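Protein modeling request. Please complete all fields; requests missing the sequence field cannot be processed.
Requester role: graduate student
Desired output: 3D structure, token encoding
Chains: 1
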Amino acid sequence: MALEWVVLGYAAGAEAIMLLLLTVPGFDPLRKGLLSVTRSLLRPFLSIIPFCLFLLMDIYWKYETRPTCESAESCTPSEHLRHQKSIMKSQRNALLIAAALIFYWLLYSVTGLVVRIEQLNKRIEKIKAQD
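Delivered output (131 residues):
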């Protein structure tokens, strides 16, 4: 299961870097090439959504089937520590899922806005050339 979380982490990181490069001012020559790369990667990155849902169901299943340590006598200290670590990992993984989904949504929205800005800039240049 660790490989799945690594893949999700790398995908979220790639989304964050592309989002950062698209929104930072001053990278106009780089932005045009990055925009075409980002637009071509949006469809493959769409697979992150069902992947995140699968991983969220995995967290839920682990939550439902975890051992309960209701009293101090029912669990040894090592079992209690393992239970606490499991909860911390599940919380971390849930944050990673949320970050990946939010970054995808932001990347999709920002890419659409940048494309629209490029189209409007071309219209303005065309109108200026006619005058």
